[in-house]
Design a protein that fits this description.
alpha/beta, 39% helix, globular
Length: 326
């Protein structure tokens, strides 16, 4: 077996799994203002960006051959109805128009995350109802009431120029509601990339700082998936496919490689995985202490996701990886 491992050229010739910049998606966090480039303390090299700075970042991504951007927004104000999510002049809508107006960015897909958590005053991914019980106040994230706002958000983002809308809320029926709303708005060509199996994970912590989206009470375990359940994940994906999803996204990636592998085995749709903030920050903590070789560990983590079956990867390492791959 060692005959084909003897030289770099031999190893390259027989390599089974390959990465390329076009299969990488870079997340961006858009915030109000001008000239804003605020580093996220728990995510070295990741920033909250005003739209002018985000366009500069997008130009760097395009020059590296990266496949696309996944856009998140930090609105100036939040409310119970997440009105900033579907506002025509919302922060992501403004960002989409700026990106689409720049011809140097034509090679980049603009993917808009569809969720309410960044825009609600309570930080949950849907409409919350509260009731007073003998043991205190209880809350419920209302599934069906949230669908209308998610669909309205998806339409607003598509009208602003999103190439793909990506619902990440995990409400039941959201893909069908969004497809119906897009079609009714004559946006039949806009694909839906469903976060089809999104687990209630401890690895989202740094993202909640970046997006200012931590729940103000309770947690998200009543709508995001239990990390113990592989068969349930396949049922979730099945439902989203039946409702009209065009692409699938698994989240997180590294701790759930078995889910990616099983989804790839069962489903024919294009399949991606999101290497989430905690995965990125964990590796950077080891890099800072000299415990891991940054370039090798980064690329190995991405190769493992690709090898498990992901066609594309959403990762905060996209720019660094693209530089090496180039």
């Amino acid at each position: 077996m060692r005959r084909l491992r003897r030289t770099a050229a031999l190893r390259s010739l027989v390599r089974e799994t390959h990465l390329h910049p076009g299969a990488l998606i870079y997340p961006l966090f858009l915030c109000p203002g001008e000239g804003v480039r605020k580093e996220v303390s728990s995510m070295p090299g990741v920033f909250n960006l005003s739209i002018d700075e985000a366009v500069k970042e997008a130009e760097a991504c395009a020059a590296l051959g990266i496949g696309g951007l996944l856009l998140f927004g930090l609105p100036a104000e939040k409310d119970e109805q997440a009105s900033g999510a579907w506002d025509t002049n919302g922060i992501v809508q403004q960002g989409l128009r700026a990106i689409k107006a720049n011809r140097r960015l034509d090679s980049l897909l603009a993917i808009a995350d569809v969720c309410l958590c960044e825009y609600t005053s309570h930080g949950h991914c849907g409409i919350v109802s509260r009731s007073q019980m003998p043991d205190g106040e209880h809350f419920v994230v209302e599934n069906d009431a949230s669908l209308a706002l998610l669909a309205k958000t998806a339409v607003s983002l598509a009208q602003a120029g999103a190439d793909i809308v990506a619902p990440s809320d995990m409400m039941d029926g959201r893909v069908g509601a969004i497809r119906e709303a897009l079609d009714a708005a004559e946006l039949t060509e806009t694909p839906i990339m469903s976060y089809a199996a999104k687990f209630a994970s401890a690895f989202y912590g740094p993202f909640r700082e970046a997006a200012d989206s931590a729940p103000q009470f309770g947690d998200r375990r009543s709508y995001q998936m239990d990390g113990a359940n592989l068969r349930e994940a396949m049922r979730e994906i099945d439902l989203d496919v039946a409702e009209g999803a065009d692409l699938l996204l698994m989240k997180p990636a590294g701790p759930y490689l078995d889910v990616i592998c099983e989804a790839r085995r069962r489903f024919e749709l294009p399949l991606g995985a999101y290497q989430v903030s905690g995965e990125y920050s964990m590796l950077h903590a080891a890099f800072a202490r000299g415990w891991l070789e940054p370039e090798r560990a980064m690329m190995e983590s991405l190769l493992s996701i690709r090898r498990a079956g992901a066609d594309f990867i959403v990762t905060y390492f996209a720019k660094d990886a693209a530089k090496l791959l180039g």
